[in-house]
Each structure stands twice: as structure tokens, then as C-alpha cells.
Amino acid sequence: MLTFSKKNKIAPISIFYLLYISRMVVTLTDIQSLSIGSVSTDVLISLVLSLGITVLLSLPAIFCCRFNKNPFDVKWVGFFYSLYFAFLAGVNISRFSYFASTTLNPDSKPFIFALIIAVCAFYSACFGVEAIARFSSFAFILLILAVLAVFACNIKSFDEINLYPVIQSDRSDIIKKAFIFSSNTSEAAVFLCLNKKVNGNAIRPFVRAISAAYLTIFVLVLFVMGVLGAGASLQTFPIYTLFEMSKIGNYERLDVLHISFWILGVFLKSVLLTYCSAISVKTERKIKHSYKCLVSIVFTFALSLYLTQSTVYETVLPNIIMLPFLIFCVIIPICTLIFKKRNLGDELVEIM
């Protein structure tokens, strides 16, 4: 039985689209820095481990939803979640700005791309969750079509010999990569923020979105290794290189597909995080939703400029998001389960 969206609500399938794209965006152009500087076949093992870790660490958020205990019902906790979402949006924009200014147009400045995305994200976040959900279905379809196209174009170039040796790193590195992959997800926090806006059961699409995203990422990395082999580690953005090598008849390059759905994906995730940042803040005095979005996006834009123009991006960025992930996606939900009374409906999150 299908569950459709209502006013100020979204259908369960929409939360699936949003979280699937959110998880995918991290990996599309950032797989190398997430894998600690090298792309080898043992990254696939790390991905499998990461899926298990991510699902396990998402259990506190799932139980918060099941037992109707939400950390966003506490005003001061919601304020810190708002900062967390704005921080993630800044990281998200900085990654795309870095990609665009180093690969798409090396003569351009990163702040131009960051500014364009920030302005578009602010404008779109003001329309609310229903508009964001409607756009997510289009972005999801484009993403799936692009991934299927690159699989079909590179199947003949896939060589199993490139997958050997399967394990090139020691056990500690594999486990470390798995934790880095897991900590680069914010879906548990977004799920907690939006589950009351879902017209139906939000838990099932949440788990399915994470699982489907990891499966897609696994197959993409598998093709990267099967086609590029050891040369994948020489590429700054190996998945983008895989799309560049793809051909359909006389149309020799599919990198435009990668660029298109990456732009849509990073835009959608930035809008989603900006929206979540805005609705996480509850005040005694009612503040317009657009004003909250504006404050959030200004902080996001400033942070994205700092990350893009410093050495943080290439050195410690994969690591600095690990602690916030543990705090907001694991520790706070656990504390909510233990200490917060069950919400019987009198503490609803105030959303536009």
C-alpha cells in the first residue's frame, strides 16, 4: 500500500530518495580522500564493514524513532544540531567547490561555486520539505540512469586481473577506512530531524536508503578498480575518470552525466541540510523560517570558504567530521533513549 505525502508532510519514498542521494554525494568525487590517499580493492572490504558499522551506529536513532523519543524536542539540543547541519553543509559545498575549481574549470575560484550553491540552497530551503522531496525524485532518477549508463559502457573494459591482489593494506588500515566511510554519513541525524515529517513509517526507507546507497557505491568502486586498476590511486577523482572513459556510440564522454547528477546531488543535500538546520532551532519568539535559513547559509558559506582555501581539505577533513558524527548521530541519541521521557505528543518539533 502506497503512502502519499500530505500538507507539510512527505511520503516514505521521499525520505528514501533524500537519504540515498545524501549518502551517495559523499562518495561521488571524494572516494580517494575518504580511503586515506589510495584506492585499492581492499576499499571494497572497508565498504562492506562500513555498511555494518553504519547500520549498527544508526540503531540509537532508529530506537529513538520507534520509542517516540526525539532529541530535537529539547530546545538547546536542537540548537547544537542546527550548527551540526550547517557545518555538514559547509563541508558538502567545499568538496564540490574543490572538485569544480580543480577539475571542471581550473581557472575559476572556489568561492564562485560555493556562492552559487549557497544562494540556490537558501532560496530552495525556504520553500519547505515538500518542495525538497519533489525535487529528490527527479535527482534520484537521473542518478540511477547515470550509474547504469557508466556500468553498461565499461563492462567490456572490466578486467578481473585489476582486482588483484585483493588485500593490499593491513587489517588496521581496512578498519580505519571503514570507520572513515561510516563517519562521513549524516543520515541518522537527518532521519531524526525529519521522521515526524514523514507520512508513514520512516524507519524502513531509512534502512533501505543506507543499504541501497552502499550497494551502489560498492559496485562503482568495483568498476573503478576493474577498469582503472592501480591507476585509480593516481586520479584525484577516480569515479569522475571512470565516467570520462565511458562511451556510447559516437558520444565518447559521459562525464557530463557525472557532473550533472553531482551538481543536482550536492545542491539537494545542501538544501536538505540548510532546511534541517533552520527547523532544528526552536525559540520562544517565533522567527520566520526564511530568516533561520539565511543565518544557517551564511555560516555554511563562510565555513565552505575556509575549508576550500586551506590545507584542511586534503589533510584532516576526513578526520575532523568523525567526532561530530559520533556526538550527534550516536551519543546524543543514546542519551535521549536513556534519559528522556517518552514523547506523548505534547512536545512536537515546531516546523514551518
Structural class: mainly alpha
Strand segment count: 0
Q: What is the CA-CA span between the terminal residues?
A: 29 Å
Query: Would you identify the regions where 5 or more consecutive residues have pLDDT less than 50?
Result: 344-352
Coarse shape: globular
Q: What is the ordering of alpha helices and beta strands?
A: HHHHHHHHHHHHHHH
Q: What can you tell me about this protein's structure?
A:
- This protein has 352 residues and is mostly helical.
- Helix content is 69%, strand content 0%.
- The protein has helices spanning 12-28, 31-34, 42-66, 75-104, 110-125, 129-154, 171-183, 187-194, 203-228, 238-244, 255-279, 289-309, 312-315, 317-320, 322-339.
- α1 runs parallel beside α9 (203-228), α10 (238-244) crosses α11 and α11 (255-279) crosses α12.
- The longest helix is centred in the N-terminal third of the chain and has 30 residues, at 75-104.
- The relative contact order is 0.23.
What are its keywords?
352 residues, mainly alpha, 15 helices, globular
